Amino acid sequence: MKFRKTMIATLCVAALGALPAALPLTASAATGVYLNIGPPPNREEAVPEPRRGYVWAPGYWNARGDRHAWQRGHWERERRGYYYAQPVWTQRDNRWQLERGRWNRGDRDRDGVPNKVDRAPNDPTRH
Fold this sequence. Notes:
Order of helices and strands: HEEEEEEEEE
Largest sheet: 3 strands, antiparallel
Shape: extended
Structural class: alpha+beta
Distance between the termini: 73 Å
Helix content: 10-25%
Number of strands: 9
Oligomer: single chain
Strand order of the largest sheet: 1-8-7
Radius of gyration: 24 Å
């Protein structure tokens, strides 16, 4: 009986030890998106009527493989105390890098202008 319990415990430990090798891992570091050619001019896109509790994220040129692909605008759920920074392409060393859209902290009056560059960062009447 004791041998059987020891064998079961050993098999459980061995199975748990092999488990991480079988599971896919998620990357913890952000990867950069680079292309050798700059994005085309942005497309004209109809901006929908404001929607309470949401922020409109305009369309932009995304990267798919080694090409630019248009990503249509979409609604992002509003995050109090944050402002949405749109995706932007910047040229570095003869290559173009995509900085993905993200939420940044620091927009107390929720007008879309970061507090550090806002002339009136605490004005709740500005939206």
